[in-house]
Amino acid sequence: MITGRAGTGLNQTLLVVVTTNPSDTADVVAWLGPQNYADDVAIVSGFYAGVAALTARRRVVVLDVGAPDGRDSWRLAELRNRGNKVTWVVVADATELPYLSGALHTDLAVTSVTRLPPVREMLVTKGLPVDDQTICRRTTR
Question: Rounded distance, CA 81 to CA 134, Å?
Answer without folding.
Answer: 35
